Every structure is written in structure tokens, then in C-alpha cells.
Amino acid sequence: FGDAALDGVDFYIDQGQAGGGAAGAGDHYDELARRLYAYNSRYRGRLGVTLTGTVRCAYPDHPGVQAALATGLFSRVHVRLYGDLRCTWSDREAWEKWAAAFPGSRVFVGVVASPEADDGAYMSQKDLYYGILQFAEKVPNYGGLMIWDRYYDKINHYISSS
Q1: How far is it between the farthest Cα atoms of the chain?
Q2: Whole-angstrom distance, CA of residue 11 vs CA of residue 49
Q3: How far is CA 161 from CA 18, 23, 25, 33, 120, in A?
Q4: Which burial class, exposed, middle or buried, applies to 42 when counting CB atoms under 10 A from its CB (0-12, 13-18, 19+)?
């Protein structure tokens, strides 16, 4: 990366079908995670490269993503409650499967900031709370909200009104 300061990498792998999909590049995400995480040995007393994974709602996701997350090196898992036709935004059960599968990671609820971003996946703050947050907040490794995307959040003020 040259002289760029890299402090984190999000594994947002959106290829193939969840639970199957194309073979090839996705077969080595676990190796990539280990190599990126290995850079942390160069930092004294702090984590230099944070690994996060942004996954589809339905559990499990693409096998390459699962293999990477299984390394146990990911500090955060962002579960997208959008962009997956097998889940709805109120799919509490799917989110809880992710949280249970990765107890060593903080697990975030991924939501859409505005109907303009994805009308079918957008939920009001009331729906967010009653649909999933009142349950998710009780899970020990609940991390918070992951909002997609910042552009629409700045316009809509979704996060500040939640």
C-alpha cells in the first residue's frame, strides 16, 4: 500500500451465491485474513490492522467468507439486513445465528439509512427497534448498528434520530 496508513480491512465479499457460489478467488479469503492480521506484529501494544466482515443476512454466507471468519481474527461482523432476498429486514433469527456463530466478535445490525438507498429494505426507527434491536441488544456480543450508506445518512439523519 505504499506510504498509505492502513488500519482496517472490511471483507465485503458479494460474489457467488450464499452457501455455494463460484469457486476460485473466494477460496483463499482465510489466507488473506491471516496475512493481513500478521501485520499486527509490527505494532507494539495496539492493534494495527482491524479486520471486519460484512455478510449477507442469511446464515451461512459464501464459503470463502465463512472460512475467513472462522480464523477468529475478525473483531466485527456486520450482518446486512438488506440486499439478500432470502431475508427481510426484521429477520431476527438470522442475525442471532451470526451472533452465536462468532461469539468472539462484535456483531452489528446492518441497516439502510434511507428509502432512496434501498426502498424495499428500509425500515423506520420504530420498525428497527421492535423488529430486531430490542432482542439484539440483549446478545452479549451485540456491537451496534452498521448504517449503509453514509451519503444517505447525512441527508436523512438516520443514525442521529435512532
Answers
A1: 46
A2: 13
A3: 33, 42, 40, 35, 20
A4: exposed
Residue that is written with C-alpha cell 456483531 in the block: 107
Tens digit of pLDDT for each residue in 87-144?
A: 876 788 999 999 999 999 999 999 999 999 888 889 988 999 998 999 999 999 999 9
Nearest one of 129, 117, 121, 116 to 161, comparing CA atoms: 129
Instruction: Please give the distance of CA 126 from its chain centroid, rounded to a whole number.
Output: 22
Mapped onto helix, strand or coil, the DSSP state of residue 40 is helix
β-pair type (76-80, 50-56): parallel
- Backbone phi and psi for residue 62, each to the nearest 5 degrees, phi listed first: -50, 135
Backbone angles phi, psi at 65, to 5 degrees: -65, -45
Amino acid at 77: V
User: Which residue, 152, 90, 97, 158, is CA-closest to 125?
Assistant: 158
